[in-house]
Fold this protein.
Amino acid sequence: MAKRPKIRHLAIITLDPERLAKFYEETFEMTRLPAKGASGSRAVYMTDGYITLALLENKAEGKPSGLNHFGFEVGDHEVITGRLVKNGVKAPAKRPADRPYAETRATDPDGNNFDISVKGFGSEDATAKPRKEPATV
């Protein structure tokens, strides 16, 4: 059986891609990828070694910046909390007890929500049932 598809890319629309790039470098140790895209683009592409994060300049009049949320699995919640506060955002808030994965939620400087989990997001959930039929497009 083929491996299950995995999320490998997220994009955030922002008024200041460089400011967010510095935030993700300093807080989550993400690294920049070589510039891609159109000439003159202010977009910044980053990775944590598994997923790519595109920080795209918001050029649409009236379009809000951001996306709903995304999640980080971390080894030490306290270290990340300290980095968040150091980088000018509030400490993460505890998630409701009925949420199966993320223990806390925080926001970046633009107000984008992200979950933080030490226990993980269940991508290797042994109780998940494999699809019996191939997906159609």
User: Anything to note?
Assistant: DSSP finds two helices and eight strands in the chain. The domain at 10-117 is CATH 3.10.180.10 (2,3-Dihydroxybiphenyl 1,2-Dioxygenase; domain 1).
